[in-house]
């Protein structure tokens, strides 16, 4: 008997890659699942319908009745939410609907939420010092929930899931790099903006400080989701609910090191004039990266010290892309931008209307 999984944001970078990579996974448990992909637009429907063995639906996630109907009609047991880490109203109806599904069938239901690492940055109000996934993250987030919307979303989801009897997990991706595998959007937001900005300016720029940013390749991130779902499907005991925070981090990337590798790769293609890297002001960065000044530091120049034990807590998950491998193949980031242009990102679109 197959298990039905709903992936929201399946037209996006992470969601689309999850759908595509689940379909090609070698995990035996994932051979026996039915994926329903939820998207927003007709264009995304057309793109996702090119995938075999995937049901594609359009779904407004803030419409509680529509969400409940979709969960019950498609007999969804597991939801992987990748749409919004900021707005809890796009997630709570999914949790409530899974609660109804459990009440209807008597079978367990599971909610896997995609959060954001910025919830654990000092710059957003998280306590100073090292943060570990062995810490009481939920309790701290609950105390600080009103100071940052992503924390409030994480807490609200966990509380709601407990209330309606749904088992919940919070996956916390770091900076995600690499080309995605989904059929609609294959570009992340951050790194391609650096590359595109440099190409447009014919010059590399950077912030005055060298920020060290936790990073993960997209194929290692989708592997994390796959291992997590495998643990669910094979009834293995793993941390969940208040203890169910899983950091998606493969390595820590120095921005200075990244730029030092990227500049000569761009110059080798004659996309920039020279390999010298200029320092930009906040205003210049905003213009070149094409995001509002208020979002520049938050999105592109923030970091946090995270001690994670994801490989121990999810046995079988082993990141394939290390820092050395990524930097050795940094030219791939340029190829992705040259071939694909700019990310089809709802986040970028919303920022530009600020």
Automatic annotation (TrEMBL):
One term of GO molecular function: aldehyde dehydrogenase (NAD+) activity
Stretches assigned to the NAD(P)-binding domain: 9-88
A Pfam family that the UniProt record links to this protein: NAD_binding_10
UniProt xrefs under Gene3D superfamilies: NAD(P)-binding Rossmann-like Domain
GO cellular component: cytoplasm
InterPro entries with a match to the protein in the record: NAD(P)-bd_dom, NAD(P)-bd_dom_sf, NAD(P)-dependent_oxidoreduct
Entry protein name: NAD(P)-binding domain-containing protein
Phylogenetic lineage: Eukaryota, Fungi, Dikarya, Ascomycota, Pezizomycotina
């Amino acid at each position: 008997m197959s298990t039905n999984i709903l992936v929201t944001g399946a037209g996006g970078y992470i969601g689309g890659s999850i759908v595509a990579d689940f379909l090609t996974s070698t995990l035996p448990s994932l051979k026996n699942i039915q994926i329903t992909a939820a998207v927003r637009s007709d264009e995304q429907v057309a793109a996702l319908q090119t995938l075999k063995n995937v049901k594609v639906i359009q779904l407004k996630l803030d419409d509680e009745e529509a969400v409940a109907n979709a969960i019950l009609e498609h007999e969804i047991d597991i939801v992987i939410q990748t749409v919004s880490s900021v707005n809890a109203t796009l997630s709570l109806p999914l949790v409530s609907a899974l609660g109804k599904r459990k009440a209807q069938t008597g079978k367990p239901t599971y909610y896997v939420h995609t959060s954001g690492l910025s919830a654990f940055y000092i710059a957003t109000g998280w306590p100073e010092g090292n943060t570990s996934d062995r810490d009481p993250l939920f309790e701290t987030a609950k105390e600080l929930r009103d100071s940052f919307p992503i924390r409030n979303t994480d807490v609200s989801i966990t509380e709601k899931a407990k209330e309606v009897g749904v088992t919940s997990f919070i996956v916390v991706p770091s900076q995600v790099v690499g080309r995605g595998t989904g059929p609609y959007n294959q570009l992340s937001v951050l790194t391609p903006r650096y590359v595109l900005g440099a190409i447009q300016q014919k010059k590399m720029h950077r912030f005055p400080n060298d920020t060290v940013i936790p990073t993960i390749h997209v194929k290692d991130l989708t592997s994390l989701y796959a291992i997590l779902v495998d643990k669910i499907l094979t009834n293995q005991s793993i941390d969940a609910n208040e203890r169910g925070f899983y950091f998606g981090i493969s390595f820590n990337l120095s921005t200075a090191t990244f730029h030092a590798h990227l500049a000569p790769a761009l110059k080798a293609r004659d996309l920039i004039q020279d390999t010298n890297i200029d320092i930009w002001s906040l205003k210049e960065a905003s213009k070149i990266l094409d995001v509002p000044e208020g979002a520049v530091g938050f999105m592109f120049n923030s970091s946090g010290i995270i001690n994670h034990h994801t490989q121990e807590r999810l046995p079988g998950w082993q990141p394939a892309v290390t820092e050395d491998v990524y930097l050795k193949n940094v030219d791939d980031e340029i190829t992705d931008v040259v071939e694909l242009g700019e990310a089809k990102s709802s986040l970028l679109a919303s920022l530009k209307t600020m």
